[in-house]
Amino acid sequence: MVRLTAEYIERKCSQAQLQKSLSKRMSKGQLYGLTHLRMNNMFISSIGNFVSYKNLKVIYLQNNNISKIENLHFASNLTHLYLQHNAISKIENLDSLEKLQTLYLGYNKISVVEGLELLNNLTVLQIENQKLPSGEMLCFDPRSVFTLSTCLEVLNISGDKVTSLSSIKGLRKLQVLDATNNSIDDIDDLTDSISVLISLTDLSLEGNPVTRYYRYKENLIANNDTINTLDGKIITDVCRCFMKRFKVKKHLYHMRKSLSTLDQDITRSLNLPAALKESISRAMFQPSGPKLPVAISTTICDSQSHIFPSWKIAAAGNTIKNGHFTPRPFWSNVIKAKRSYSSTRSVLNNKVIKLPPI
Q1: Sorted alphabetically, which InterPro entries does this protein's record hold (predicted)?
Q2: Across residues 231-251, what is the average pLDDT?
Q3: Distance (Å, whole) CA 184 – CA 268
Q4: Looking at 2-11, 18-27, 109-118, 124-133, which range is the least confident one?
């Protein structure tokens, strides 16, 4: 087991310098002034104390056996930290790295993106292909997402068994998202999440079940105005305009369909003659016009009020069918029309009509 300490760094740096020149050796002052520390592929299992190296800006610790992030509180100037291909299970002890811009944590055992609440300058987060137990997936702590919403531009969560992107909807500055080879399968949830990522320009979703959804690409393009590249293919302005029109037409189609279904459901629930049902349907769904005078409430339609025209009962037109009393409706204007017709007929019968001479 190898522990990363100041002595270990001094020994390794001296060996590297001797390979370059046998006559030149690095002084401690030169060592402490290092800005880049390359300790990758060194079989390091833990991070010890090397607080003298305060000028470090980049630390390479990938391809080791590190299981815990620790003892980095001194590196206030650090901008890049490479910890991929280790055995880290938790993101922690990074609060003092206020200048950190790039963090590589891929190929570890991390299940929760957390501990990033004070990293206000982090622009790149690579946390792909975590070695997670069966049934677990990568999750995001809302506190870390809140901080990253003002700075993060590149996010790689490929191969992390993610089923939804709803937890990262707050990343307003995100420009590049790699979510390939996950378990995203809900197209509605996906389009809802993508539609609020207002800075997203490059999106990769290959290897997800949702990509087999009918018109998957069309739905994403129509719900996001900023994506320029989707799954490695450039989106043209012509394609975007076409998808926008398609979205509007689809919305109008579903509106008409829902109104038609509502119309049928309401009229079907009323035990009325077919002609009256049609009249009720026109009165309920007409866009404008005077309201009809009588309102009838029925428990069959969830106690909603429906508008019906007034009708009169003929004295001799009542019938009894199947034990039910059925009145015969007459419209008031029909009665007036009949009266005018009968009066005109009587005048014609009593008057002699003279034909013009031939």
Answers
A1: Leu-rich_rpt, LRR_dom_sf, SDS22/Internalin_LRR
A2: 74
A3: 40
A4: 18-27
Amino acid identity for residue 69 in this structure: I
Q: Which two tokens stand for residue 238?
A: 């012509």
Q: Could you identify the residue written with the tokens 């398609």?
A: 246
What is the per-residue pLDDT across 272-285, written as a single tens digit (0 to 9) for each? Answer: 566 666 666 666 55
Query: In the numeric block, which tokens belong to residue 39?
Result: 């300790």
Q: Are 66 and 46 in contact (CB under 8 A)?
A: yes
* Count of CB atoms situated within 10 Å of the CB of 50: 24
Q: Is 201 exposed, middle or buried (0-12, 13-18, 19+ CB in 10 A)?
A: middle
- DSSP H helices, 196-236, are 216-222
CA dist 231 to 191, 216, 221, 235, Å? 15, 12, 12, 10
CA 208, distance to chain mean position in Å, is 15
Average pLDDT, the chain: 80
Are 122 and 152 within 8 A, CB to CB?
yes
Q: Is 0.90 surpassed by the pTM of this model?
A: no
In one-letter notation, the amino acid at residue 325 is F
Report DSSP letters for 62-83, one per residue.
Answer: -SS------S-TT-TT--EEE-
Residue carrying the six token digits 């109008």: 252
